[in-house]
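Can you make up a protein sequence with its backbone structure tokens?

===
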Amino acid sequence: MAAMNRLLSKKAQAPASKAIQGLPNVNYYVPILATMGATLLVILVVGFLTLVAFGNVGMFWSEYGSADTTGGILFCGLLGILGLVITVYFLLAFIKGVRDLLTPMQYTRGTLADKRTIGGRLVGNWLGITPSYAGPNIDAATTITDEQSSVSADRSRIVQTRNAPVAAPAPRRRGSYLSPERVAASFAPLVPPDVPPGDRAVFRVEGDSFENLSPGEEVLVAHSRFLEHIYFVAHMRDGEWESFRSKALI
């Protein structure tokens, strides 16, 4: 029985995932450059095929008059229009990559409002965050006050002994062990935010961070502004940041 209790205690204290203590160092430019390179390749290939399709339309149009040329015009015309739409879409993505190269990493910090797993075209794990700060200032985004440190204790790591002394009854109080004013102050913006507080920010994240975050806690997301590459997601544990680094940025 004693051995089993020690085993359960170790399981209770073991981390539930591969979290990183503190904020990780990331290379901001490599994923953006890789995305831009792949996007440029798609633009060149699809653009060439689009020109070929429209060239065939012109050729069939010059020979217009038979059923074969009519079918060829319709088929190649539809392919050309589809290729043009795809080219414009990836061209806009390439422009976003250029803008990200000229923009520093962005940090969105706020309260996790909800978590959703969505299927279909936008399949993935999504976090809805009510931001208290959004901008490039890492100091403003990561500063932890004493009140925030007090309410970030990881209670899952607290192991209760079987023969723990009985605590003396405390005076009955309403609410949490911190006054409502202090709890509210812990979620107040540290500096004037770059975006109006209350605007919903939505991010698609990986399963590790999605499973270990709980609605209502304060989280920090490091991402590029336009392509929205997620570099890491962090939350507070015992007064320090605990991070989940993105493993698939592209």
In short: Residues 35-101 form one domain. The chain has two domains: 35-101, 104-154+179-250.
